[in-house]
Amino acid sequence: MSMSVKRDILWRVAVVYMAFLLIGLLITGRIIYLQVFEKEKWMSKAGDFVLKTMNIPADRGSIYAADGRLLASSVPYYEVRFDAKCENLSDRTFYRGVDSLALGLSRLFGDKSKEAYKSSLIDARRQGKRYHLVKSGVNYIQLKKLKTFPIFRLGKYKGGLVYMQESRRVRPHQGLAGRLIGYTSKDINGNVVGIEGAYNDQLGGVQGVRLMQRLSGDVWMPMNEWNEIEPKDGHDLITTLDVNLQDVAHKALLHQLVTQGAQYGTAILMEVKTGNVKAMVNLGRDEQGFYHEIQNYAIGESTEPGSTFKLPVMIAALEDGVVDLEDTIDTGDGIFKYYDKTIRDDYHEHGGYGKITVEEVFEKSSNVGMAKIITGAYKEEPKEFIDRLYAMRLNEKLGIEIKGEGNPLIRYPGDKYWSGISLAMIAHGYEIRITPLQTLTFYNAIANNGKMVKPQFVKEIRYHGKLIRKFDTEVLQSSVCSRSTLHKVKRMLEGVVESGTAKNLQNSQIKIAGKTGTNQIYNKKYGYKSSSEVSYQASFAGYFPAEKPMYSCIVVVNSPSKNVYYGNMVAGPVFLEIARKVYATSIDMHPVMAKNKDTQPNLPYTKTGNREELRFVLNELDMPVENSHIRADWVSTEKKTESIAFNNRNVREGLVPNVVSMGAKDAIYLLENAGLRVRLLGRGSVRRQSIAPGIRVRKGDQITLEMTRI
């Protein structure tokens, strides 16, 4: 080999060597740079891949009825896992206990055989799984039992038992008041409904934080408990609802919907003074024909109310002095042509009502009469009429906390859709929109002597029993009309039931005041006109007892299909059933029974016994006692015409006491103190004792007492 070739080879080797040396130096330099100058940066990023924090949901607060009965609560469930690679769990301990553990799991859950559980646990151990799923959806009682099983009884660090809590919302009364109680969803829209949604922040509490460690397979396992920040439980809500009344309203409305084949219906019951909603039912028919709480029609369904709106219309006319109750209106044959609109009374097929008073126009619910009153008074100045309705707050939302309140609509003269017939239409409840709750709030104001209060669904917020906040009644308007007008419309509302369209609601128990409503539902395709497509909405709004109102109520039934659609026949019976139940269960509605001084007291039977105890009981019952001066500890009693007489029942030491006519408690006390063993036969008072009274006691003897119920 020539020298030139040799030099060429050496040069090439040197170049390669230098290149590798340079690359090595660069790598070493980069490592040193990363280790020294960017150490914290990359350590933090590494932590992101190995460790992360996870939110721990707080226990959501519960929702209660007014009497404390549970309406909605979160029940804890657990996901149970097994750390099969637990450092302190030896093979000897695992294989000695796995058979019993598998048997226990199989018996506890009943979903898999012992062999299946054993096989999965052994596979997890062999594969070194750190977070093997044993069972999800485990309740607290099951978890408590599971903690006693072999291996798992050793806990997390010695037995590999890992569990995480999750909560499920449950309702003990199932679908009762479902839409009002509501829910919150975790979907992309974050849907919140009803009380659950309105008070989500208070119910939700404050989340905690847990440090999680990443395992193979992108599985995350919680680290030590001391790396956690505990969540704070949510607050509890005490609602205004009465479960019993809610149940009555639900059943009454459901029965009527099924009977009439209606599309949907709603019923609301409210306390007059406070605005507390005691019941709210919303039932809609699904595709299979079953009724459920599909949506909150009471709060969200803004529709033309029909004749129930004649109340504020009449108030406007009375307030402006355009009519009085005794004035006469000629309703003719029950047909009124106003511009291109024909308005009819239900009685037009029988010749109409003819000339009737304003009071009768309201009580008979004459559409023609109402239209003539309003058009005759406000045709030239329609703004005055609408301003009156606006002044009564009928164009404003109630501002309730629950989301989804429907917008009330009362058009103003000059608006896009205002026309020449608008006055006549509004006069009998058309060309406006209002929700059932908004209508009820107005009727409630009349029952409340003109004061309009805001409907209330929640009374209190509590935290672990401690009162956090109490909600007082909120007044929306101090008076919706003058005292004189209020007196007149109350008289008319009572007249509707006494001699008007709701005579079928008269009953001997409770006096009702209110207004029926029957209106055609506007169809986008057919309008109101097509006879083959006409559908109706029946309603009744009012309050009771009429003489001293305590509750207001509205019932609305949409699209009854059995050829019965009048408010008094469809909605009225539901109203009446609710009113009767409230009357039967409300002590305040029943007059106090005056005690007749001339009536002889119905004296009770009294047993022989301790004098002081007998005296206390008889005094509490306000029963007169003779010989109350007797000082003996034990007395017998004698029932006389007007009093109970005490007589001495002497008990002497060393002698068997006379316990006949005593109760078991007193008899046993005396006899055992005397040193006797007592045997009882039967219940009630002592009829006979086996050892006669007055005989000297022989301690330890058995005495048998024959008891009788008197």
| Secondary structure tally, helices | 22
List segments where confidence is low: pLDDT < 50 over at least 5 consecutive residues: none
According to CATH, the homologous superfamily of the largest domain is DD-peptidase/beta-lactamase superfamily
Radius of gyration: 40 Å
Largest sheet descriptor: 7 strands, mixed
Distance between the termini: 138 Å
Give the strand content: 15-25%
Instruction: Tell me which CATH architecture of the largest domain applies here.
Output: 3-Layer(aba) Sandwich
CATH level-1 class of the largest domain:
Alpha Beta
The count of domains is 4
| Strand segment count | 34
Estimate the mean pLDDT confidence.
Answer: 87
Structural class: alpha+beta
CATH names the topology of the largest domain as Beta-lactamase
Write a structural description.
The protein is an alpha+beta fold and 710 residues long. 33% of the residues lie in helices and 24% in strands. It has four domains: 31 residues; 159 residues, Penicillin-binding protein 2a (Domain 2) (Alpha-Beta Complex); 318 residues, DD-peptidase/beta-lactamase superfamily (Beta-lactamase); 100 residues, Trypsin Inhibitor V, Chain A, CATH 3.30.10. The strands form ten sheets. Strands 2, 3, 4, 5, 11, 22 and 23 form a seven-stranded mixed sheet that branches. Strands 14-13-12-27-26-25 form a six-stranded antiparallel sheet, with helices on both faces. Strands 1, 8, 9 and 10 form a four-stranded antiparallel sheet that branches. Helix 3 packs antiparallel against helix 4 and helix 10 runs antiparallel to helix 20. The longest helix is centred in the first third of the chain and has 34 residues. The radius of gyration is 40 Å and the shape is flat. The chain starts with a helix and ends with a strand. The mean pLDDT is 87.
